[in-house]
Backbone:
C-alpha cells in the first residue's frame, strides 16, 4: 500500500459512514423502513415521543423491530396511519382528534383501532387578569377575545376546533397560533392575545402554568365546565371527562385545582397495515409490559 492509499483509507471509511448516516436519516424522515412497526410519534422529546421510544426499547427485547419517526402532532399521525401508501402502522393521538378525524373521514372508521390508553391530557386555559375572562362562558361572548394556541397543526388546535363544534359560541373567540409562553408575557400589550390554551398531562406543570400559579395578580386559570362538551367515541367511550384537576399537591393534599375537561391519549393501529403476527406480538407486549412503557405515575 503506497502513502496516498494509506491516507485515503480513513477518508473513504468516513465518507461511507456519512452516506450510511444520511441514508438512515432520510429513511427516518420519510418513514421508509424494513421495521415490523413504523411509529409516528409526535415532536421529538415530547410526551408522545417518550412513549414511542420506551415502546421501541421494550419491543426490541422481544425481537420486534420498531422505527420511531417524529411528526407535528395528532392530525399528521392519523393522516400517516390511514394513508395506504405510507409505511406507518402505529401512532398516538388524542381521543378528540380521533373523533374529529373520523367525522371528517368516515371511510376510515373501521380502519383505526384503539390498542391502549396513555392516560389523560387536560385542557388548561390561562387568561390575563385584565381580560375580564372568568370562565368558558365568557369565551362564548361576542367580545373579540383572542386565544393563543401553539401551532395550527398541534393537538391543542384540534381540541379547540372540536370544542367549538360542540359549543358553537366558542367560535366568537379567535385562535392565534403562536408561542404560548411569549403570549402570556405579552398580556396587556398592543395586539396581545387575551388568553392561552394548552393540552397536557395533569401532573405536568408546564412553564406557563407555573407562571400563572406564581403570579395570581397577573394571570387567571379559567374553568372549563360547559356540559355541551360531552361526546362519545365510536366505542362508546367519552371524548372528554369533566375533572377538578389538582395543580399543587402538598403533603398529599390538594392545594389548588381547576375544573376542566380531559381527553385520553390513545395508542392506535390500522388492521390494514399491520400483520396478524406483528399485532399478536405487540398486543402481548402491551398486556404484559405496559407499565414499563407508560408508568401509571406519569
Residues:
Amino acid at each position: 500500500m503506497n502513502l496516498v492509499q494509506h491516507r485515503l483509507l480513513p477518508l473513504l471509511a468516513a465518507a461511507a459512514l456519512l452516506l450510511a448516516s444520511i441514508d438512515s436519516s432520510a429513511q427516518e424522515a420519510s418513514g421508509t423502513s424494513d421495521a415490523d412497526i413504523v411509529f409516528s410519534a409526535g415532536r421529538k422529546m415530547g410526551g408522545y415521543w417518550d412513549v414511542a421510544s420506551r415502546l421501541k426499547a421494550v419491543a426490541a427485547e422481544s425481537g420486534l423491530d420498531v422505527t420511531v419517526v417524529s411528526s407535528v402532532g395528532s392530525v399528521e399521525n392519523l393522516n400517516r396511519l390511514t394513508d395506504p401508501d405510507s409505511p406507518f402502522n402505529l401512532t398516538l393521538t388524542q381521543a378528540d382528534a380521533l373523533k374529529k378525524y373520523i367525522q371528517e373521514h368516515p371511510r376510515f372508521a373501521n380502519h383505526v383501532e384503539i390498542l391502549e390508553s396513555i392516560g389523560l391530557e387536560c385542557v388548561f386555559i390561562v387568561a390575563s387578569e385584565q381580560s375580564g375572562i372568568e370562565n368558558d362562558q365568557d369565551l362564548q361572548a361576542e367580545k373579540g377575545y383572542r386565544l393563543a394556541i401553539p401551532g395550527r397543526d398541534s393537538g391543542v388546535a384540534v381540541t379547540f376546533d372540536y370544542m367549538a363544534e360542540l359549543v358553537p359560541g366558542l367560535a366568537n373567540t379567535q385562535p392565534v397560533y403562536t408561542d404560548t409562553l411569549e403570549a402570556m408575557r405579552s398580556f396587556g400589550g398592543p395586539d396581545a392575545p387575551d388568553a392561552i390554551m394548552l393540552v397536557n398531562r395533569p401532573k405536568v406543570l408546564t412553564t406557563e402554568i407555573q407562571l400563572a400559579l406564581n403570579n395570581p395578580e397577573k394571570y387567571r386559570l379559567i374553568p372549563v365546565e360547559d356540559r355541551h362538551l360531552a361526546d362519545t367515541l365510536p366505542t362508546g367511550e367519552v371524548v372528554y371527562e369533566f375533572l377538578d384537576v389538582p395543580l399543587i399537591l402538598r403533603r398529599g393534599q390538594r392545594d389548588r385545582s381547576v375544573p376542566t375537561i380531559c381527553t385520553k391519549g390513545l395508542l392506535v393501529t390500522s388492521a390494514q397495515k399491520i400483520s396478524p403476527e406483528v399485532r399478536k406480538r405487540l398486543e402481548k407486549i402491551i398486556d404484559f409490559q405496559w407499565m414499563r412503557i407508560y408508568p401509571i405515575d406519569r
